[in-house]
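[Meeting: bench + compute handoff]

Bench side (C.D.) handed over the final construct sequence. Compute side (W.E.) agreed to return the predicted structure before the next meeting so the bench team could plan truncations. Sequence as handed over:
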Amino acid sequence: MNPGAVLRIALRALAVNKMRSALTMLGIVIGVAAVVTMLAVGRGAQERVSEQIRSLGSNVLLLLPGARNASGVRLGASSVQTLTEDDAEAIEREVPEVQTAAALIRVGVQAIGGRGNWATTAYGVGNGFFDVREWSLASGRLFEPGETSGSAKVAIIGQTAARELFGDEDPIDRRIRVRKVPLRIIGVLATKGQSAQGTDQDDALFVPLSTMRNRIQGRGSARLRPVSAMLIKVREASAMRSAEDGIGGLLRQRHRVQAGAADDFSIRNLTEILQAQEASSRVLSYLLAAVAGVSLLVGGIGIMNIMLVSVTERTREIGLRMAVGARGRDILRQFLAEATTLAVIGGLTGVLLGASGAALVASLAGWRTSLSMDAVMLAVGFAAAIGVFFGYYPARKAARLTPIEALRHE
């Protein structure tokens, strides 16, 4: 019997009891839909984390000021400015694993531009900041040496801030005002997207560090030149740990931190934090997929149960087929085809339901989902394998019947 005939007979047999066939497939449908949805959500989460890692730049450490005590109350991190530009220069000079140490000052500002005003974040940085963040320009240029040393009234702007202040107009050489300081825009950064915390990285503007301190903050007389934080780019990923140790030792020496005393700074490995998030989302996806796999298992047991009932109900039919020349392997193939067809149809229905579920999750929860063809093929293939595995015993039982015993069955 050719495969086409086997498939036609299988479909005809399943169509005799449509409701029973549909209920039998339900476990497979739910299991496959759950697997597809979880794989789509998990893959989307991994892609999101990968994008966030790339947006941070590779091999990046974040150095923050430490906490302090006030009247017996321990305040939070960055409650006191303990880091300076001199620290950044020393780190870049004395820690061999470090490629660039970019100090920055961050303040919230109300920028006034061509279309009105916009609340954004202003950063005082050097050109090394853009190197650490691997942040390219969409147009314009970076700061020139004379501008960074001379507190020049220039700025580089992010895409969101540029859009809110100037709309579709080209902001290059346009002027904005920040805290009564007029700034000429010399560059527009390429789109960076959201950060790991969900903030818009493109909603920002950047000025030279000296401009931030001397003109916007008005701290030109500050001798120590304090900064809000540092982004540190390490030359090799394998040197991250040794770079952390080197930076910590250098700063403890520079800040005269006594042995056993708490550091007045903190070092965070941003890549490790995001990779931990990725690992957590991946483990959660695996757990949910395992739960969905239990549903597939239950669906497979349902297929076995129904196929055993079908063998009992069609015993005389099996006997007639054998009496007219059907062999045991033909009967085996027929019942296997019915079980596999049930599983595959349920699998395909589950894929459609899972894709819809992934789209619903993306729409309602705002999560990114990504459905790959590999996930679809895996789910359908697994469903077919369940059909073969759980359908084999009933099919084998049917194939072992003798014509006389089968025809005697009432």
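W.E. noted at the follow-up: The first helix runs from residue 3 to 16. C.D. will use this when planning the next construct.
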